[in-house]
Amino acid sequence: MRELINHKMILNWTNHLLQESPNVNRTEATSMCGVPGRADNGTQISLYPAALYNPGQKAEYSCQPGFALLGDSTRTCQNDGSWSGRRPRCVDNLAYKKAVASSRVVNHYRPDLIVDGNPKSCIYLDTRVGDRFIQIDLKKNHLISGLILHVPDGFVQELTVFIAEKLESAPGIQYRRCTPRLSQVNSPKVQIECRGEDGPIAVPGRFLHIRDERQVHDFYFALCEIEIYGLPDAPMACGLPDLPAFAAPANQSQLLEEKHGHIFSPTCQAGFVLRGSKVLRCVDGNWIGSEVTQCVAVECHPLVPVINGRIDLFPTRGLSNNSFNSVARYRCSDGYMIFGGDAARTCGLDGLWTGSPPFCRPTDCQLPRPISNALYNLVDNHTKPGAIAQYTCFNGYVPQRILADKPLQTAIVCQQSGVWKEGNFHCALRTTYYPPVSISFSTTADNMSSETTQEPIMPDPSSSTTARVQTSSIKEIEFVKPVPVTTSVVELMEKDVTPGTDSSLV
């Protein structure tokens, strides 16, 4: 019990330090949106293709040919991490490429342009004709729930929509209004629900008949596309649900589960835990439970602030500072350096920070490293930033550059980072140079001589040569001029006399 109380006190103290201490730099977490869902028989195009979306980013929806989009074609990521509106649905377009009849069209536009699936191809009815209409034959009776009208931008229309049912008996055709009142069309896309005069959810019929009700003909009666949808014969499929931020992408098993079982089991990425509904169920084209499903990141305990330094936290985008994969970097104040522990730590899958915390100690470069055949002297007698260490080579050694393109530098400086700035030298052995010695022989006393040059030799004090070398100093070299003799070389050889000596000694 006492240990539990102590642990709670330490945790509260740590949280207090984190709230009050300025040396922990925190980043505010922002809510992110996951991948938006996709309708069955539809496509979802993200304007910012990614697995995570910032608030304000959008996704656009469209349907495959032959299907009509019900709902908003654009959704926006909101500040709470959810997508605006409901995921749109793609339903059968009963009017797609069906037969069309109309009053006179200007410029020979074909009436079937309004059922070709392209909302940018339009027709314009001639306003000089008194009864202006468009009629689409759906080939058989349907329970029509509504229609979507596309008109050119800037056009304002006023019209009545009728549903004509083909009867087996007289009168053969029965017309009903789709809506009890006139329909105003003042935007490029308008959805009209058919409820009939007595309020049923759908109106039976085979023909859709639209009549221009405007009294002032200041614009053409123009239509670009008509999409008609009815009550489905079977429960609607749901497609893919909205996935929460940091959810794992849908795999093949989940797709088959959605298609055949009408359920979906979301999963989260590594380092995240699923909260909320673990199984989503498809009900009439809508997923139940997806709005409360979340992937919550594993959290690590708050870090204790470092004295004489700070901790910079770098969380994963959209998460809090102490969440999975967040990186903590320790930095020391001027005059201090990191010592011990780990300068960078990461929040792991187990909810623990990797490594151990370091601490900040006064910056010190420590003693300089030894260099062969040299001694150093601390000029200011310390090893803190700004200290200078001067190296001196031993007797018999001289400093030489290591890098030929940089000046000779035998002093090093302690830097703010606590590291000595290296010099540019090494101590090389001092060498002695002996010049070559030349010995001459003369065959005549007058002007004939024959010179023989030997390779450089070391002087021998015991030998008698015409050149005496002083070995104590390389600069003290004395060359003695050879004494002229009249004896030939052959005679010298017969008498075994050394050239350059006096013959009277023999």
Descriptive account of the structure:
This protein has 5 domains: 2-27 and 298-362, Complement Module, domain 1; 42-92 and 236-296, Ribbon (Complement Module, domain 1); 99-230, Jelly Rolls (Sandwich); 374-429, Complement Module, domain 1 (Ribbon); 434-506, no CATH class. The protein has 3 helices and 34 strands. The protein is mainly β and 506 residues long. The strands form 11 sheets. Strands 7, 9, 10, 11, 12, 13, 14 and 16 form an 8-stranded antiparallel beta sheet that branches. A 4-stranded mixed beta sheet has the order 1-22-23-25, with no helix packed on it. A 4-stranded antiparallel beta sheet has the order 27-28-30-31, with no helix packed on it. β10 (157-166) and β11 form a beta hairpin.
Describe the secondary-structure layout.
Blueprint: H1 2-20, E1 24-25, E2 42-46, E3 58-63, E4 67-70, E5 74-76, E6 89-92, E7 99-102, E8 123-125, E9 133-150, E10 157-166, E11 173-177, E12 183-185, E13 189-193, E14 203-212, E15 221-223, E16 225-230, H2 252-261, E17 263-264, E18 272-275, E19 280-283, E20 286-288, E21 294-297, E22 309-314, E23 327-332, E24 336-339, E25 344-346, E26 359-362, E27 374-378, E28 388-393, E29 397-400, E30 411-414, E31 420-421, E32 426-429, E33 439-442, E34 449-452, H3 489-495
Q: In what range is the share of β-strand residues? A: 25-35%
Helix content: under 10%
CATH homologous superfamily descriptor of the largest domain? Galactose-binding domain-like
CA radius of gyration is 50 Å
Distance between the termini: 119 Å
**How many distinct beta strands?**
34
